[in-house]
Amino acid sequence: MTDLKTETSERISEIVNKDDVVLFMKGTPLFPQCGFSSRAIAILDHCNVAFGSVDVLQDMEIRQGIKAYSDWPTIPQLYVKGEFVGGSDIMMEMFEDGELLQLMNEKQVAKAED
């Protein structure tokens, strides 16, 4: 019998590796439920990349599990090609410095469709 932590961690691992870019957030891209999630969506939109999202408010196991998975205490959390990038503040700093777009280009992530 697998324990809940292992099962949740495996689910998260599948999610972060499913899409090039994945954002764990509160709410959805169309209806973010907090300012930090809203800012993260705006940054990804500016980068013009395709991304998947997970509404942690809909799944308490994921909401708690993602914090342990990344060893990062807050949400939103951004993953690019399966690697944890950071939360809203780090995303903002990287975006302002041009590092986030550079990372997306280096990792050859899929562009958003018009």
TrEMBL record:
The keyword Hydrolase does not apply. Coiled coil: none annotated. InterPro entries: Glutaredoxin, GRX_PICOT-like, Monothiol_GRX, Monothiol_GRX-rel, Thioredoxin-like_sf. The keyword DNA damage does not apply. Pfam families: Glutaredoxin (PF00462). Keywords: 2Fe-2S, Iron, Iron-sulfur, Metal-binding, Redox-active center. Residues 21-85 form the Glutaredoxin domain. [2Fe-2S] cluster binds at C34. It comes from the Bacteria. One of its GO terms (molecular function) is disulfide oxidoreductase activity. NCBIfam families: Grx4 family monothiol glutaredoxin. Belongs to the glutaredoxin family. Monothiol subfamily. PANTHER family: GLUTAREDOXIN FAMILY MEMBER, MONOTHIOL GLUTAREDOXIN-S14, CHLOROPLASTIC. This is Glutaredoxin. It comes from Aurantiacibacter atlanticus. The lineage of its organism: Bacteria, Pseudomonadati, Pseudomonadota, Alphaproteobacteria, Sphingomonadales.
